[in-house]
Glycerophosphodiester phosphodiesterase (Hymenobacter oligotrophus), 283 residues
Amino acid sequence: MARGSQLLQRPRIYGHRGCRGLRPENTLAAFLHALEWPIDGLELDVVLSADNQVVVSHEPWLNADICLGPTGERLTPEQGRGFNLYQQPYATIRRCDCGSLRHPSFPEQQLAPAYKPLLSEVLEAVARRSAELHRPVPAYSIELKSEPHADGLLQPAPAVFVARVLAELDAYLHRPWPELLIMSFDHRVVQAARMLSSLPVCLLIEDNLAVEEHVHQLGFLPDVLGPQHTLLTPDLLRWCQAAQLPIVTWTVNALSDLGAVAKLGVHGITTDYPNRAASLLGL
């Protein structure tokens, strides 16, 4: 993704966790259903299991709102957080149903039993479905879930984490590779990705710290900035335009917000509702 390319006729559309507004998040069903619209890319989150498998999951634990335990039991929030994926073998994680409970914020979700897939499964399933649709494989925005003070507890050290994800991409993506973007809120992960790979990197931000301070802490200008859409102030937009830093913003769902953000000159929009974005933009 070349810098200075953020001013497009329309922003690129990325399905957030597949299409969280329509199917349970980060499941095979969500990624495959998102392909029913001509979106540009898929956004997903990855963590590691105890046996070093790259698991597609937003949290490195079980979200009790949307996941059942390995024996089908309902979990309290405390029990869900106690189910640390980094301390569990993938065989146990796979027994947890994360598709039968509707997310309380997404009433349109169609439910069906689903497990947390491996990254390799998502890559292979999306490639097969794209071929059936006679479409190129979409771009991938892959967020590595990492907290600065949780190394060894919820995730490995950044360089180890990045290297494991890169190895999975190398093993399971067909060449020529689709467009890939490695993302994280953790500056250390973005730094490790820049050191270990030539893939574009994206720094995600959700706080009110000035973007120039984030870049100063990072030590270099990332290829893409990923701010929450409520942070798209005139100052941030001007700074990124001057720095020729493309913006892929998240998570934009309301039609009014989609319309407003699409006019700001951002490079991309991540949304839980690719159907809404496709309709609005005439895709």
User: Anything to note?
Assistant: The CA atoms of residues 61 and 85 lie 5 Å apart.
